[in-house]
Amino acid sequence: MNVLVIYTHPNHQSLSYAFFQKVLQGSNENPHISQTKVLDLYEVGFDPILIFNENKRRRDMHSDHVLEKYREQILWAEKIVFVYPIWWGRPPAMLLGYIDKMFAANFAYRDKKGLIPEGLLRGKSVVCISTMKGPTHYPLFWLNNAHKILMKKALFQFVGIKKVKFFEFGNMESPKGRHDEKLSAIFRYFKTVSG
Predict the structure, then answer these.
(1) Do the strands 109-110 and 118-119 form a parallel or antiparallel pair, or are they unpaired?
(2) What's the pLDDT tens digit per position in 169-189?
């Protein structure tokens, strides 16, 4: 299994980075994972800003040569892992900009007759690992599960990815946040996951 890990946090001293490291450690010990690639969006200086004008059209985004290496990473991966914090109830703008650019028409999906497009990334799976200051159930009870709906239904199912797993860790700025326990859970998951 080929695994692409997309890390989105500007600080390598953060708790998000600790979770990212556990993903890599577990993956390295998993016999089902043949290769792991990493994309650190801040480190590579990914440009999340969309620009459309007479020279750069939205309908041509699927063939933008600047994004070709990132498209190849997505096509190569069988499992895509996103590691990011929850800010204001949603992923960071950097990750949303990556999503806007990469999950483009005629690459991630294709319009067809009817309301539902054809997802072109079928057969892949996704894991979302997110941390937040608020309580674990805050997104569910106060935001009507907006984060999961955004990622699972509005994005991944739209492009044909049906298998999506979430690890939403709350209370991460509290000394009672059970950080070690949660970090160990991520390590164990990636050490044993087989599909």
Answers:
(1) antiparallel
(2) 876 666 666 878 999 999 999
